[in-house]
């Protein structure tokens, strides 16, 4: 440990006895994390390209050009826009109308830097999306099975009554605002906001993304018609899929900001090697 | 520490390189093979884990789209096709041939006199929109049974009257979907005869797959043992030209 006791938050630099390493992430968790990092990145960007093929969202069983869209990204003589219901938001240059790599003006919903492939190509976007969708779905399945067996879910994800009380939630919000993310009593555990956001992503958002995605498949709708009833129709499922993708993107952005604030080297190293440096605390 | 920092910088470089890298990966000849294997995996999973004869949902009349938009070719526009339109398809014949015992040439009147199925189903375009309409037509199974498939027939190919960029439209399905009860050759839509915009005189309905499989302006039904010998070899116009999936149940 000599010479390595550098805390990324710049404290306790020369006092190795004040920090210690704990084994935070199992191999399964680490593999799943990095596979997902790539997979979700590909799914979001290829999904943006698929959306470009018909940049309108509807509620219900059907929805096409003559039906009322609740969300639309398009362009008119005033430029690119995003429309929510009847409200028009000017998004010229970013959404609806934007400048391509070669300087030409394009009228598509998402710009080239946000899509896979970068040029308009529904067929290959679907190839990327549908193949990586399998990685996401089976990755989640294997992670959940492994996490039940190694008791990751039982130990780290199950909510305890005292955690979800308003006092504790408020305490954790304040701690986050003070950029203090470790619980000194349990430095290896998740704080409650962290636990809640992981619970929502793993047990709500990713499963919703998978099942609303399946509901867009005409073959799966025939096989499992209950999905149409659960989500209120194929076009509703498509809308929920888009909203869920937006929330997952929001999670990733917040996640990255918090990793940066909490000490990116320690965090990234922890997710690669499994070992995380935490304040030593009191020996127990 | 140095190793970690290097790892981190490497990670950031890899992540930003990925942005442009996906396009380059897609162009690499080996990579599409991996990427395209997803289609086979989906088809395998759907076919092995779910009921192959499951019916697509049928809707009530009050759930139908007020306006069912047209798309793709809306008029073949060739002199031959126009002549058929002018004569109300009186001289038009559906050719049924290939690996069949009794090749057929069916008039529209003959097809309409065959037992018909009416179904209100959802049409899902690969682009993402859906429209619900009512279709009337003869189950493909009845036509194929009349022609008598030879044992080596594995796929049914639909040759169409429309050309896109000079290339004839065509599509193909396997026998699981060809003999599915909802797979019909539709001659009517929403209680009227099929319009030119929607594929007159005959349009394939294959309700568990995406819209581009629903071949319009069908002129000929051919039973084959191998799709690789048909045109571009991938089983359909869009499959040949833009790499859409042949199995469009996803």
Automatic annotation (TrEMBL), chain A:
One of its GO terms (cellular component) is plasma membrane. It is found in: Cell membrane. InterPro entries: Cyt_b561_bac/Ni-Hgenase, Di-haem_cyt_TM, Hydrogenase_cytochrome. GO terms for molecular function: electron transfer activity; heme binding. Its main location: membrane. GO terms for biological process: respiratory electron transport chain. Residues 24-274 form the Cytochrome b561 bacterial/Ni-hydrogenase domain. It comes from the Bacteria. The chain crosses the membrane at residues 31-51, 128-149, 198-220, 240-262. Keywords: Cell membrane, Membrane, Transmembrane, Transmembrane helix. The keyword Protein transport does not apply. Pfam families: Ni_hydr_CYTB. It is a multi-pass membrane protein. PANTHER family: CYTOCHROME YDHU-RELATED, NI/FE-HYDROGENASE 1 B-TYPE CYTOCHROME SUBUNIT. This is Putative cytochrome b561. It comes from Sphingomonas changbaiensis NBRC 104936. The lineage of its organism: Bacteria, Pseudomonadati, Pseudomonadota, Alphaproteobacteria, Sphingomonadales.
TrEMBL record, chain B:
Pfam families: Oxidored_molyb. It comes from the Bacteria. Residues 89-225 form the Oxidoreductase molybdopterin-binding domain. Coiled coil: none annotated. InterPro entries: OxRdtase_Mopterin-bd_dom, OxRdtase_Mopterin-bd_sf. This is Putative oxidoreductase.
């Amino acid at each position: 440990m000599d010479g390595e006791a550098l805390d990324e938050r710049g404290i306790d630099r020369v006092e190795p006895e004040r920090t210690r390493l704990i084994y935070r992430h199992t191999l399964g968790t680490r593999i799943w994390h990095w596979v997902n990092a790539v997979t979700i990145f590909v799914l979001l960007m290829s999904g943006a390209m698929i959306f470009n093929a018909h940049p309108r969202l509807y509620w219900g069983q059907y929805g096409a050009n003559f039906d009322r869209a609740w969300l639309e990204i398009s362009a008119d003589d005033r430029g690119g826009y995003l429309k929510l219901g009847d409200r028009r938001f000017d998004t010229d240059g970013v959404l609806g109308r934007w400048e391509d790599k070669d300087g030409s003006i394009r009228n598509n919903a998402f710009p080239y830097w946000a899509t896979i492939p970068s040029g308009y190509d529904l067929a290959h976007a679907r190839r990327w999306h549908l193949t990586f969708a399998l990685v996401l779905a089976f990755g989640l399945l294997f992670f959940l099975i492994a996490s039940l067996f190694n008791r990751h879910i039982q130990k780290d994800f199950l909510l305890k009554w005292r955690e979800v009380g308003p006092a504790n939630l408020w305490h954790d919000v304040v701690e986050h605002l003070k950029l203090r993310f470790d619980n000194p009593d349990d430095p290896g555990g998740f704080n409650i906001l962290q636990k809640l956001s992981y619970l929502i992503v793993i047990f709500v958002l990713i499963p919703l993304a998978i099942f609303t995605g399946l509901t867009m498949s005409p073959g799966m709708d025939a096989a499992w018609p209950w999905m149409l009833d659960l989500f209120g129709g194929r076009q509703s499922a498509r809308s929920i899929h888009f909203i869920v993708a937006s929330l997952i993107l929001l999670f990733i952005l917040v996640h990255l900001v918090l990793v940066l604030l909490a000490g990116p080297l320690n965090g990234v190293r922890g997710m690669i090697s499994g070992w995380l440096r935490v304040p030593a605390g009191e020996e127990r | 520490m140095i190793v970690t920092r290097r790892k981190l910088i490497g990670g950031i470089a890899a992540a930003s390189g990925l942005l442009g890298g996906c396009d380059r990966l897609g162009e690499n000849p080996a990579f599409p093979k991996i990427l395209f294997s997803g289609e086979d995996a989906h088809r395998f999973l759907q076919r092995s884990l779910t009921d192959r004869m499951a019916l697509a949902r049928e809707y009530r009349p009050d759930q139908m789209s007020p306006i069912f938009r047209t798309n793709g070719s809306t008029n073949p526009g060739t002199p031959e096709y126009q002549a058929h339109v002018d004569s109300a398809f009186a001289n038009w014949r559906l050719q049924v041939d290939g690996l069949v015992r009794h090749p057929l040439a069916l008039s529209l009147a003959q097809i309409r006199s065959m037992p018909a199925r009416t179904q209100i189903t959802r049409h899902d375009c690969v682009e993402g929109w859906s429209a619900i309409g009512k279709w009337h037509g003869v189950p493909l199974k009845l036509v194929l049974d009349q022609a008598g498939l030879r044992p080596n027939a594995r796929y049914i190919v639909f040759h169409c009257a429309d050309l896109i960029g000079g290339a004839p439209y065509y599509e193909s399905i396997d026998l699981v979907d060809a003999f599915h009860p909802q797979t019909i050759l539709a001659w009517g839509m929403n209680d009227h005869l099929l319009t030119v915009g929607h594929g007159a005189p005959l349009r394939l309905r294959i309700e568990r797959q995406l819209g581009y499989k629903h071949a319009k302006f069908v002129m000929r039904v051919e039973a084959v043992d191998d799709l690789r010998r048909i045109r571009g070899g991938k089983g359909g116009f869009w499959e040949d030209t833009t790499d859409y999936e042949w199995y469009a149940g996803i």
